[in-house]
C-alpha cells in the first residue's frame, strides 16, 4: 500500500494479490468550510516476478506501475451525498450511499462524459434539419493564477471564454478547489478540469482519475501526453493534470504551451 501521506510504501503481506495506491483525503484544506472532499485510490496486481527482491525495493517498484496496468480505480466524494465512483476497466459507474441501510446503491451506471457538441439530423423528404445540442461548456481552474500561466494556456482560456473556440459558445467557470469534486462535476456535466502547475501526484491522483475518465469516454492529459502512458519514476512525482471530454482536451493540447512550470508567490 502506498499513500500520499507516507514517505514510502508499506508491504502488508507476502501473499497479498493487489497493490493499492491512495490519496486518503483530497481537499482537506476545505474541511473547516464544509466544502466537498474526497478519497482517491487505484489498484494494481502485485508483480510476482519481483517477489525475490528485498521488501523495501519490491514495495516501491510495485507502487510505480504505469497507469495502463491499473485493474481498478475509484474516488469517493463526501458532499451532500456520499458517492463512490469506480471502474474495473469496463465502464465507469457511481454508487450513492443509502444512510438508512449502509449500502451503496448503483445510481449512475455506465457514465459517459458529455461531449462538447452533439449534432442531430432529421430528414424531411428532401430537406434535412440539422441542429446542435451543446453541453459541457465548463472549465475548472484557479483563474487567480492567470498571469502566472504560460502563453498557450492563457490563449486557450481567453478563446473559450469569448466563445471563439472550435465551437461558438462562451464557457462558464466552475472551480471548487477540491479535485474529486471538480472532477465529479466534469464527469457528469462535461467540459474540462485542470491544474496546470506541477502540483498533483501522478501515482495517487492523476492515474486513478484518468482511468475513470477514459472508461467514461473522456481523457486525462498532462497537457502534452496521455496520463496513463507515463511511467512513474518517483512515488510522489508531481505533474500538470487536465481531465475532461475528448474535444476539450484535444483543443487545449493544440495550444502547445499549457503546462505551468514556474510557481511564483506560492509553494508547491
Topology:
Blueprint: E1 2-3, E2 18-26, E3 37-45, H1 55-63, E4 72-78, E5 82-87, E6 92-98, E7 103-108, E8 117-124, E9 127-134, E10 138-140, H2 151-161, E11 172-173, H3 179-189, E12 192-201, H4 202-215, E13 219-221, E14 238-244, H5 246-253
Parallel strand pairs: 1-2, 10-11, 10-12
Antiparallel strand pairs: 2-3, 3-4, 4-5, 5-6, 6-7, 8-9, 12-14, 13-14
EC number: 3.1.3.11
Pfam families: FBPase, FBPase_C
Family: Belongs to the FBPase class 1 family.
Summary keywords:
alpha+beta, Fructose-1,6-Bisphosphatase, Chain A, domain 1, D-Maltodextrin-Binding Protein, domain 2, 2 domains, seven-stranded mixed beta sheet, five-stranded mixed beta sheet, 14 strands, 20% helix, carbohydrate metabolism, hydrolase
Care to describe what's here?
By secondary structure, the protein is α+β, with helices and mostly antiparallel strands. The protein folds into two domains: 2-108, Fructose-1,6-Bisphosphatase, subunit A, domain 1 (Fructose-1,6-Bisphosphatase, Chain A, domain 1), CATH 3.30.540.10; 117-253, D-Maltodextrin-Binding Protein, domain 2 (3-Layer(aba) Sandwich), CATH 3.40.190.80. It is 20% helix and 32% strand. The protein has a seven-stranded mixed sheet. A five-stranded mixed sheet has the order 11-10-12-14-13, with helices on both faces. Strand 4 (72-78) and strand 5 form a beta hairpin. It is globular and about 55 Å long. The two termini are 24 Å apart. 39% of the residues are buried.
